[in-house]
Amino acid sequence: AQSVAQPEDQVNVAEGNPLTVKCTYSVSGNPYLFWYVQYPNRGLQFLLKYITGDNLVKGSYGFEAEFNKSQTSFHLKKPSALVSDSALYFCAVRDMGYGQNFVFGPGTRLSVLP
Amino acid sequence: EPEVTQTPSHQVTQMGQEVILRCVPISNHLYFYWYRQILGQKVEFLVSFYNNEISEKSEIFDDQFSVERPDGSNFTLKIRSTKLEDSAMYFCASSERWGTPEAFFGQGTRLTVV
Description:
The complex is a heterodimer of chains A (about 110) and B (about 110).
Chain A: E1 3-5, E2 10-14, E3 19-21, E4 24-26, E5 31-38, E6 44-50, E7 56-58, E8 64-68, E9 73-78, E10 87-95, E11 103-104, E12 108-113
Parallel strand pairs in A: 2-12
Antiparallel strand pairs in A: 1-4, 3-9, 5-6, 5-10, 7-8, 8-9, 10-11, 10-12
Chain B: E1 5-7, E2 10-13, E3 19-24, E4 31-37, E5 43-50, E6 53-57, E7 65-68, E8 75-79, E9 88-95, E10 104-105, E11 109-113
Parallel strand pairs in B: 2-11
Antiparallel strand pairs in B: 1-3, 3-8, 4-5, 4-9, 5-6, 7-8, 9-10, 9-11
């Protein structure tokens, strides 16, 4: 079965500092990996995805994520955090050999302090 | 940019009443989903729909739930007799075709059962 773990419920970072939001996954086949962001009372906004190819993927708003197959991780990063990045971040996986649905992690709340 | 739209944004209903949540997927998409997020918890898969039938469903999607594509544009989730624990944010999503890794999510409908 597929599963996604986000080991930190909350990440606090000062504005201007780099940020990392961690994600590890477990799938039976080849994973498709995603990051979504949710602002208060809003829907899920797509940030970036890894399908194949370069392990470092770049997405919206200056975010990037690195796929590490040996560590089964897909950590989200940004070189310089903004206060407006404060939101709930979800990692998700699709194992296209297993099923079509997304499996989401529990979410990590990012707070960027001015 | 095309987007998935959901109506209403917020619905309040009395326990035991039927509710229908509406979604308009992106027009050329063929694969549709419903997910839910109980407040403060992770996003959970409910059901996927392809070629006018359910392709996958979770254990959450019991006999109280049904989905329908009544016409060429709408995709609906019906809860026959709502319970307090059905209170959640419900997200609709769509994918272009079978095997497309990316899905686009709507803004969600917040359902409150009182």
